[in-house]
Amino acid sequence: MDEAVKGCIEKDVLKDILEKFSSEVIEMLLTEYNEVETMNAFREEGRAEKLIQDVDGVVEEFGTSIERACKACHVSVKKYYAAKTMLNM
């Protein structure tokens, strides 16, 4: 990140702003990056929760095995257990 800011200053891209506020700009970029990463993690967890909920719902409602429920939900058993592992279930 520091190198990118230095490169911009050398190439006179936003030079005035970056010379005065480079640390703030870097902090803002890092915060925004982490926010995107965090939101992606939340979405992935939500999808995993939904997958588990769907499969477990089929097992409960129809009294069938995890394997058959996964097949009915078009999900591999491996993906089901990976979702449970990710969510520490």
From TrEMBL:
Keywords: Plasmid. This is Uncharacterized protein. It comes from Butyrivibrio proteoclasticus (strain ATCC 51982 / DSM 14932 / B316). The lineage of its organism: Bacteria, Bacillati, Bacillota, Clostridia, Lachnospirales.
